[in-house]
Amino acid sequence: MIVFISGGSKSGKSSLAEDLAVKLAGDATRWYIATMVPHDEEDRQRIRKHIASRSGKGFITLESADADPSIAIGREKDTFLLDSVTALLSNRMFRNDYSVDPECGKKTTEALLQLAGRVNNIVFVSDYIYADAENYGELTEEYRRNLALIDQALANAAGLVIEMTGSFPIVHKGELL
């Protein structure tokens, strides 16, 4: 099963994703694909909070800034949680060498759909960054367009699509487990 969860910052997306991944996995191995590359103390603090919140839930963490689909080789019967699509896109679009790949949305979409096709269950977490009417710079707008492309493809492929708002899940597709 593919689950797609989107919502605003600190809306409870990650906690819900963890709970759903645990339910989906049953006795199978649970993998947590952590895509955030910390850039400052606030990022490191957020990572520590996420590690603490999943403590005791049986996840094995894979730090993967690019979430290459080969990460699933030999783990096809397992359940994965990828948190987050938003950070993954940032890693792929804004590279360590300071170059930018504004066309990476399609490649990232293909990679995530390949990953989803290789595993028993996967839960994707993404940030909903489309609600404002603000006009941003071209790179930010390209980032938002790429994330929208990825999110739409994942939601289309998912059997369960959830939007978190105010810590409450709104199910747009499928049924909450």
* Relative helix content: 40-55%
The largest pleated sheet is described as: 7 strands, mixed
H and E order: EHEHEEHHEHEE
Low-confidence stretches: none
Strand order of the largest sheet: 3-2-4-5-1-6-7
Distance between the amino and carboxyl termini: 11 Å
Mean pLDDT: 92
Overall number of strands: 7
Q: Gyration radius, to the nearest Å?
A: 15 Å
Strand % is 15-25%
Treating each run of at least 4 consecutive H or I residues as one helix, how many helices? Answer: 5
Class inferred from helices and paired strands: alpha/beta
Shape: globular
List the helices and strands and how they pair.
Blueprint: E1 2-7, H1 13-25, E2 30-34, H2 41-54, E3 59-63, E4 79-83, H3 85-93, H4 104-118, E5 121-127, H5 138-157, E6 160-165, E7 168-173
Parallel strand pairs: 1-5, 1-6, 2-3, 2-4, 4-5
Antiparallel strand pairs: 6-7
Helix pairs in contact: 3-5, 4-5
